[in-house]
Amino acid sequence: AQSVTQPDIHITVSEGASLELRCNYSYGATPYLFWYVQSPGQGLQLLLKYFSGDTLVQGIKGFEAEFKRSQSSFNLRKPSVHWSDAAEYFCAVGGTSKLTFGTGTRLQVTL
Amino acid sequence: DTEVTQTPKHLVMGMTNKKSLKCEQHMGHRAMYWYKQKAKKPPELMFVYSYEKLSINESVPSRFSPECPNSSLLNLHLHALQPEDSALYLCASSQGPNSGNTIYFGEGSWLTVV
Predict the structure, then answer these.
(1) Residue B54 Cα, gap to closest chain A Cα (Å)
(2) What does the radius of gyration of chain A's CA atoms come to, in whole angstroms?
(3) Of B106, B100, B34, B109, which is closest to residue B68 (Cα–Cα)?
(4) Chain-chain contact of A43 with B98 (C-beta, under 8 angstroms)
(5) Whole-Å CA distances, B81 to A13, A104, B85, B88, B114
(6) Which has the closest alpha carbon to A97: B3, B41, B45?
């Protein structure tokens, strides 16, 4: 069965600081991996996705993620966080007809 | 901006009411989904429609009844709900039902059952 673990429930960073959100997955074959962001009271917006090929994936809003098969990880990064990045971030894995989400990481940005 | 449109954005209903949530997409996608999301939790899959046919029902209680009138529309009919059904209901779509296709979400409908 596929699963996703986001070890950090809550992260606080200062505006302008770098960010890394962790995601570990479990899947028997090559996974399809996604990062979504959810602002308070909103739906989910796709930040980026990995299907195959280059293991460093660029997304919207200056985010990137790196797929590391050996570590079963797909961590999300941003070099300089903006106050508007404060939101809930979900990592997800797909490979069957279902998308499995992690429990999410809430990002707080201090000014 | 999302291309999956959900109405209404907010709905308050009594436990004896019948109401519906509506979802529309114009991306030509052939798979549509309903997810339920409780506060501080990830979305949970409820139903999947593939080519206008129900392909997955995640053991959802019968008080939730999905309907796919055509390839662009998805409804969720609600009847005799319980207060614990209060949640954000997210509609989503993808090009096909395989999870290799990116799933795009709407803004959601906030449901409160009183």
Answers:
(1) 13
(2) 13
(3) B34
(4) no
(5) 41, 27, 6, 14, 9
(6) B45
Cβ-nearest to A97 among B2, B42, B56: B56
**Residue closest to B109 by CA, chosen among B101, B99, B96, B81:** B81
Three-state DSSP at A67 gives: strand
Write the Ramachandran bin of A62: left for phi over 0, alpha for psi from -120 to 50, otherwise beta. left
Q: With CB atoms and an 8 Å threshold, state whether A97 touches B55.
A: yes
List pLDDT tens digits, range B23-56. 999 999 999 999 999 998 999 999 999 999 999 8
Helix then strand then coil, in percent of chain A rounded to 5, is: 10, 55, 40
Pairing of strands A87-94, A99-101: antiparallel
The whole-number average pLDDT for the span A77-99 is 90
Task: State the first-to-last Cα distance of chain B, in angstroms, to the nearest integer.
Answer: 32
Would you say A51 and A94 are in contact if contact means Cβ atoms under 8 Å apart?
A: no
A61, A68, A74, B15, B53 from B18: Cα distances, Å? 41, 48, 43, 9, 23
